[in-house]
Design goal:
Strand content: under 5%
Number of strands: 0
Oligomer: single chain
Structural class: mainly alpha
């Protein structure tokens, strides 16, 4: 799921967005990833 989340955010914003967000603001990255899982997860 993490790979899909990263690919999606890179397409929505810019390549490297997810990695930059994870590095600069890990709490927001985790929140967004959790929202993604809750919405589209298994």
């Amino acid at each position: 799921m993490l790979e899909i989340f990263i690919e999606l955010t890179d397409q929505l914003f810019w390549k490297g967005y997810a990695q930059e967000l994870a590095r600069s603001n890990p709490a927001v990255f985790q929140f967004e990833f959790n929202e993604f899982i809750n919405t589209y997860g298994l």
